[in-house]
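User: tokens in, sequence out, please.
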């Protein structure tokens, strides 16, 4: 809903064939990326402010007193495969990432619909027998298609986390909500990590560097539990009109 314009739009679940083709073209012209964050070596240490007379870094965020910690040992392991890309695809992707990393403005022309292109020529038949395939060791099966072009990259970085013991929600409550919304096995790993290593309090601010000039920052400034919500909040007002083009990305 757009409360200023008093219009609403219903979420569309149907996609046209052209939109599906465009998404496939985007995927087939990009690296296949698998990223995983390693938490085995993560440690927390107190963050300090000041040059000469250093003191523990503390701030007031919203209604809460916050203590800041440095998160060391964060390791992002990414694996990329690109045997499905042409030389032109690799060149364009590299140029785009360099522009993004340098902080240069990315224009709309960089996100224009890609032209449909033909698939690469199929690879030659591999001289692999059935006996070799079924007798291979686990994780070491002989290649049956195009030879893999695999690249692995490990990046270590330090994040900043602000913990507040005044926040009216506990980390366990947040994890319980996430487990209901997305019951994945990774949440159990996150729960064990929070119970064993996370400093006391609730993380009201998390700042993680993504690129040399870009950081992601999440801040919780205020949380208030309300139980007497009006039923009117869950209905579209009669004065609102439907505009199917208000949010074109939906």
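Assistant: Sequence out:
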């Amino acid at each position: 809903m757009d409360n200023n314009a008093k219009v609403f739009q219903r979420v569309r679940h149907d996609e046209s064939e052209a939109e599906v083709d465009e998404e496939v073209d985007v995927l087939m012209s990009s690296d296949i990326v698998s990223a995983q964050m390693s938490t085995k070596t993560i440690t927390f240490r107190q963050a300090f402010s000041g040059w000469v007379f250093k003191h523990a870094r503390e701030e007031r965020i919203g209604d809460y007193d916050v203590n800041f910690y440095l998160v060391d040992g964060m390791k992002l392991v990414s694996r990329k495969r690109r045997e499905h890309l042409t030389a032109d695809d690799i060149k364009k992707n590299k140029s785009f990432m360099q522009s993004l990393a340098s902080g240069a403005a990315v224009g709309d022309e960089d996100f224009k619909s890609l032209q449909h292109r033909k698939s690469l020529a199929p690879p030659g038949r591999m001289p692999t027998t059935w006996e070799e395939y079924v007798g291979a060791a686990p994780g070491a099966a002989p290649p049956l298609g195009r030879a893999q072009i695999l690249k692995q990259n490990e990046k270590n970085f330090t994040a900043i986390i602000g913990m507040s013991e005044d926040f009216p929600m506990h980390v366990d409550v947040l994890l319980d909500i996430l487990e209901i919304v997305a019951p994945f096995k990774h949440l159990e790993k996150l729960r064990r990590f929070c119970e064993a290593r996370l400093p006391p309090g609730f993380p009201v601010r998390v700042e993680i560097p993504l690129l040399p000039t870009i950081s992601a920052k999440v801040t919780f400034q205020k949380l208030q539990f309300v139980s007497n919500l009006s039923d009117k909040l869950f209905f579209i007002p009669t004065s609102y009109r439907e505009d199917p083009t208000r949010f074109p990305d939906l």
